[in-house]
What does this fold into?
Amino acid sequence: MAKDDTDKQFATKAVHSGTQQIEGAVNTPIFQSSTYKLTEERYAGWAAGAQHTLLYARLSSVNSDAAIQKICAMEEAEDGLLFASGMAAISTTLLGLLSRGDHIVAAPDVYGGTYGLMTEELPRFGIDVTFADMTEPASYEAAITPSTKILYIETLSNPVLKIANIPAFAEIAKRHNLLLIIDNTFATPWATQPIKMGCDLVIHSTTKYLGGHSDIVGGAVVGNAELISSLFLKKVHFGGSPDPHACYLLERGMRTLHARMPIHAANALSISQRLANHPKIDSINHPMRDGDSQYDLAQNIMPNGTGMLAFTVKGGDAAALKFLSSLQMVFEATSLGGVESLVECPFNTSHMFVPEEVRIEAGIHPGFVRMSIGIEDVEDLWTDISQALDSL
Ligand SMILES: Cc1ncc(COP(=O)(O)O)c(C=O)c1O
It folds into this structure.
């Protein structure tokens, strides 16, 4: 983190931290260069481990430095690394920290790609995974074995939006001397700063709210400086590094994170409250809505809320698909966190390859719809959503 930013408020960090004024430019210029001229200073930086020296864009670039400093400032993290996608960040972190014979505890309702990595790739390298319940920290503790190295959680699980009681997980991780790693994509540091609650590493798909405009794919890992330093070499070896132009767009997007998120959150809350009275709705997943079973926990962990909303329509998946195709303004598309509202059914998109019984167990019942509520006018959103529900 830029040293002089620690006393600044979140909004100021979002606007200013990391942004590099070069030749008087107000924004960090795009340094579209794969390599940097070697100087005496850079040779010395290379010899010292290369992590904080501009040498070659797979290692770092002016634009990746700027963007990661901003994320570190917002997450109050010591250091961090940027990746070419959220999955590059997750796979590099897990494969970088775990070895044959190690064990990790996670939940079956993590992001579908993360689930695939944990069930299909990690076991090929002799790394065992046990799935437990993210709403029950005790179930994670019960799954710990002498080989366990990592507890892996998501602030708000995807797509059923269960909130993790982060301090309770941190207490268990500390007592058993384990790393606690969290995917904070759905919450963003505007809503939750997991490091302050005891997490060792925080992961983001920067594709989502941090970028905020559905125009990049990227990922980040931030946290403890020693861990980040050990992961730097893994990133160099695995090679999932971001392009400078994507880093530039990410940095630009993050400068308005604090301005966008309150609108996402207020719109999602308002839509969830209106859905609660709609006859075609079976159930709603939005823990920030008063009456949700996780409301009190949500007030502790992410009181500011977020734009993610899920619900189950009456009539199963056929009705859900009809709802999607009846929407006129909201795009039927996978992904989330952009200024425009998006909608999907996890059963045929993000969680298609998760076995049906695992989906049901996780709470993804027939008729389940996930929405990423954008920052459009809420009345226009409701007009579109209610006419699509009325068509069922
Ligand atoms: C919570 C979460 N984590 C990680 C990812 C993976 O990110 P990416 O698509 O940038 O690889 C996603 C993608 O949807 C996600 O929703």
